[in-house]
Here is the input.
Amino acid sequence: MKLSWKSTIPVIGLVTAAGLALSGCAGGAANGGGAAEGGKTLVVDASFDLKTADPNRQYETTGQIVAKALYQTLLTFDGDDVTTPIDGLASYEMNADSTVMTLTMKDDAVFSDGSPVTVDDAVFSLQRLQGVKGNPSFLLDGVTVAKVDDKTLTLTSEAPKPELPFILPNGALAVVNQEVVEANGGTTDEKDGAEAFLNGESAGSGPYVLESFDAAKQVVFTANPEYKGEKPAYERVVLRNVEGPTQKLNVEKGESQLALDLNPDQVAELSSANVNILSSASQYMIFLLLNQNPEVNAFTSNPDFLEAVKLGVDYDKIVDLAGEGAARPGGPIPSIFVGALDAADGNQRDVKAAEAALKASGYNGEEITLNFPNDITVQGLSFNSIAESVQAQLKEVGINVTLAPAPVATELDAYRGGTETIGLWYWGPDFPHPSNYLVFAPGQLVGLRAGWPAEADAKSVELANAAQAASDADRVAAFEAWQKQQNETGPFIPLLQPAQNVVTAKSISSVSTNPVWTVDLASIK
Amino acid sequence: MTERSARRGIPPFVRYVGVRLGLTVLLMFGVTLVTFTLTNLVPADPVQAALGEQAAADPEIVAKFRAEQGLDQPLPVQYVTYLGNVLQGDLGTSTQTRQPVATELADAFPATIELAVAAIVFSAFIGVGLGLWAAMKHRKFTDQVIRVISLIGLSWPTFWLALVVYYIFFFVLGIFPGSGRLDPAVIPPPHITGLYTVDSLLAGQWGTFWDAVNHLVMPASVLALYTIGLLTRFARSAVLEVLDMDYVKAAKAKGLPPRTVTFGYVLRAALVPIITVLGLAFGSLLSGTVLVEKVYSWHGIGEYSFAAATRLDLPAIMGVGLVVGFVYIGLNFLVDLLYGAIDPRVRVS
Here is the structure.
């Protein structure tokens, strides 16, 4: 029988469609559905900022998740409580002036190859962190790490470092297997070459070992049979790099069991019948800065104008914009950290007072630029929406703001170079201790970005120094006093802490989150 | 054979290939120069983009980073050094991951190749078929319907379409699996080509093969829809032009079967412009489609280049520029060869 082209094309189409349908059925059978049923494999979706699996070099959110699963630290935190460090691989004591910390190793930990975790491994790891000069190396700036005996090491600094116990739980200070790492090119200086090895194989004592690592795609973990702590509920964990909208559909469908990066709008669309939603205030603090350098802008450096802006912002509205779980800090220190100021003690909106201050400043409606990065989000929250909201609120009190969004790669230079007029940025803490926020003091890292040198506000400098040197008993009061001074005279306006939203499938009964490592994969049940 | 090449004893085709290869080298040199210049014109410091808040404030760390990346050298020196390394196959080290860019590209590219090939094969059959059908049914209802379909394919925003398709076929209907190239519980096949479909076939892992095909259907279909729209319009236009030719009318008048006329005369003559569009479309797909790759977590060259650009990872940006340039130049060359294979007039000229 001769086939005409009229019948050939429909036949081809039918065959193609049948093939696709067949592949759908066959593929479905091949999948097995193990992950969706919450069996041995746990699937976690996150938006990666991952660069490395080397714990002593990583300093990203996703890197902390990875390090927490593979390694252990000398000290740690219990669940989501970051106000009190607890024992990890060691216990600790601090001397009265916070210049010498003594750590005593515990006996029970072993690495994934079965060898015991010793004080030599701890010393090597901390010195490696310092020596490789990577992103997290600054955490132990000014600290000398030394072995005392077979069970003890000391961390000594000339200046008081009361934050040290809060730094040690950071995944960058994870303890690695010295013998294995040195055998693969590891050193405690810049010649270190063990990163490539550690990106392929872990050398830790944590609940998981590294099965595979791809910084762009996914990280796969397998349960560590040598781990001495509580065995994780899942034998295998796949941490995947997935965009927010796709994360939402995946977790609702059960394709993944956890979604870590849904924004407030996406969370609001979820039904609690299908998923569990854990919303809490995150550790990130979004703020405005007004440049105090008159050469940058005559108005933002004017105290009355600064006052007008502080009184003109509608803080409650901004927090509402950020959705469920967001919080307003009273000062630069987030509400979940020791020393945080209550929101009621922060600046409050007062339109009439704002207008009066604006009039006193001599402002006549000139356009004031608000610079911000438009291609990054903080816990899924876009800077665009916050900037637009601030613009509208300041308009109500008579301030004309022109938005100047730019990619973060280009805007970062202006921010760090101190040339922005009004900047909208965020601070992610290096460690959960109030002293990390002294960078906002005059003459300090972020203070200088707002054109605020030390000599500009002697009172704030004095209070900052007092807070840094305060004893444990006086610390909270000292930091509160400093923050109140910052709110009064400083160029920074803390706006909000966006919510951290962790969405889980119904099959998940418990998950432990933490501001330092986001989620502890081994704790998921 | 021309007189000159006859005198030198060089077959014209060999001479043609030689000249094209020489031009390719020059073009690639131009690509590196333009990419290097443009990336260095961006008013941003890659050091700031790569280092954290505190690290960027430490002069020692900054100096070390600049020295490692060669950023402490004058721009011409940086370019010459880069060029020298490229000639040895070294595309530099990513400022973000500190891994060789060549390795990262070799990792990302197969994913894009797999997606692009699937999309182009699908769209070639459907697009050319629809275009041919529309031309044969010129000005009839079928023609109008097909023209509307092609317009829709061209007009729908890819990102939106990708999400809609994912929502309908994965979330609502559950016909196809979720994002990624394989199911999380499936271990990737042994790496040979990096294409999961091919590697699983070579390893005899049928379950993995079907899983890979399953995951490929949605993203490839979304990408194919735009190319189908494009190809349909070009194919229709090319075929309509040929249908009016005397030799087609003569073939029909001679009583040749309609299928012979359509495929042997009409389609063959119309293939040259169609192949040009196919080549361009394939090149575009191989350059990476960021939005589709992001929605389907298909970690290919598109996503890699987006991340490199936003993080100001200069070596990675340069590497992507080289790869994309090479893809277009290579495809252009292939298309030119195909012209000669299809159209004897091109061969003779």
